[in-house]
Specification:
Helices cover 5% and strands 46% of the residues. By secondary structure, it is mainly beta.
């Protein structure tokens, strides 16, 4: 019955989008995405390893966003998603759309769940230019290059205010609660309650715009309780905060600061740059003499040449601090702390992630930056190559090398929980990546995508094979291999 109710709600929204009889305008937009992909060598362990080395998947994702518009000053937004998931699995397995049943096999309970991505109210304060957003929304800190913030770029419950201060200066500020294990509203025994279950974040940015340049300094502060992620499970248990000297039942205090800058003053050139710094201190002074924590930085620079009509060449460089090897002595982690799962920061479109493909990248499930911090990378991109009408291409070539000391892999227990082979790069590891992506406009709203990618890997077998990571035995027994991908997809944006 719940599924019939959901379908009825969607039908109502679609009908309402064509009618003003309810006293408001309802607009719908979104996309349907279906994609088939061949991938080989993504575990970088070669033929014969215990994990699957070669697969062919068909994936699908449906996203719908509805805007309930009262007037130019007031609206509400509902954003939902089904998938992404593989055909034949979960949401798209046999019987997934059927009603719940106690039977087994094809008549078992379905999995056609709808996920909430956003649900918020946005309005302009009367007779001002002050804009306010309250509710579950996409929140990202400022970034000039990479497609999004490497610190916070996720769906989160937040209250955000933005307003112009002068003709050249604006203010963006707010409060967010990314975690809360408080379930006191539930009568089940063992539920948590109290202030120690939450993580609270305050942030502010100051966009400064001049002719040919935009500079945005920003800052954020977070305070997390010792039960943020559950009973006795604090924020250091998450990938973005985990460090060598963290324990499960800890809270933390963390702050970030940085600047994003874009300069277009010089004809035919666009310069972009970011600097991000963060520090997290665990609230457990008895552990490691109070030295446990995490701190680090990331900076990137890029230049686009915009003087060509058929393409935009880009050169880029990025560097993030890595583990220095002193954590066994009670020091802090030297990677930048990260909030949640930043979704969009990436270079290239394979190893570091891909914003547009469903499953086209090595570190998609890791969240682009949470597990890969600790590297430097340089490369060349040829963006939006247009030689034939309705057909465009993107080409990327990059080299990356780790900045993490190999001794980090010899920590014990959970201290290497987010040091994933071929995702976490030590100073002994490097790779070359080349990828080529093509898009053809069948119609204005329907695009055919074909993409390819190759990673030439050079990961140190001896370092990883003798380490404390969970798959060390496989690494030791199977030679390192390269990774490939080939995909084709259809996406319908409306």
């Amino acid at each position: 019955m719940k599924k019939f109710g959901v379908l009825g709600l969607v039908a109502f929204l679609l009908i309402a989008s064509a009618s003003l009889s309810f006293g408001m305008e309802v607009k719908a937009k979104g996309y349907w995405w279906i994609e088939a992909q061949f991938k080989q060598g993504w575990d970088f362990l070669g033929k014969g390893s215990t994990s699957e080395d070669k697969t062919v998947n068909v994936e699908q994702k449906l996203r719908q966003q509805f805007h309930f518009i009262a007037n130019e000053n007031l609206r509400a937004v509902l954003d939902t998603q089904i998938g992404a998931a593989n055909w034949g699995n979960g949401l798209y397995s046999i019987g997934a759309g059927r009603a719940a049943s106690t039977a087994t096999g094809a008549n078992s309970a379905g999995n056609g769940n709808i996920m909430l991505r956003q649900g918020y109210i946005e309005y302009r304060f009367p007779n001002t230019l002050v804009n306010l957003k309250f509710g579950f929304q996409t929140m990202t800190l400022p970034a000039a290059f990479g497609g999004g913030s490497a610190i916070l770029d996720d769906q989160v419950s937040a209250a955000v205010v933005s307003a112009p201060l002068t003709d050249n200066v604006s203010l963006l500020a707010g409060y967010a609660r990314p975690y809360d294990a408080n379930s006191s509203y539930n009568t089940t025994a063992g539920n948590l309650s109290g202030s120690g279950t939450a993580t609270d974040v305050v942030f502010a940015a100051l966009p400064i715009t001049f002719k040919g340049a935009t500079i945005t300094p920003f800052a954020a502060y977070a305070n997390a309780g010792a039960d943020t992620a559950g009973s006795g499970v604090g924020a250091p248990s998450t990938a973005g905060f985990a460090g060598p000297n963290s324990s499960a039942g800890q809270g933390l205090r963390s702050y970030w600061g940085g600047v994003a800058a874009t300069v277009t003053a010089l004809d035919n050139f666009k310069f972009m740059g970011d600097f991000n710094y963060g520090k997290a201190t665990y609230n457990n002074p008895s552990a490691q003499n109070g030295k446990g924590g995490r701190q680090g930085f990331l900076f990137d620079v890029a230049v686009d040449y915009t003087g060509l009509s058929m393409m935009t060449p880009e050169l880029f460089f990025a560097y993030s601090s890595g583990e220095n090897g002193n954590s066994t002595k009670g020091g802090t982690s030297d990677r930048m702390p990260v909030l949640g799962t930043p979704q969009n920061w990436t270079i290239g479109s394979f190893f570091f992630g891909e914003r547009l493909e469903l499953g086209g990248s090595i570190n998609n499930t890791a969240g682009y930056t949470s597990n890969t911090l600790g590297y430097w990378a340089a490369g060349l991109s040829l963006k939006n190559i247009k030689l034939i009408d309705k057909l465009s291409h993107d080409f990327n070539l990059l080299y990356a090398k780790g900045t993490n000391d190999k001794s980090y892999l010899y920590e014990s227990g959970g201290t290497v929980q987010n040091a994933k082979y071929a995702g976490f790069l030590t100073t002994k590891d490097s790779l070359w990546e080349v990828d080529f992506n093509s898009r053809y406009k069948i119609y204005d709203d329907l695009t055919l995508l074909v993409y390819t990618g190759y990673i030439n890997a050079n990961f140190d077998k001896d370092v990883w094979g003798n380490s404390n990571v969970s798959n060390a035995a496989d690494i030791k027994n199977y030679k390192s291999s390269n990774a490939y991908k080939l995909g084709v997809g259809l996406n319908y944006f409306f």
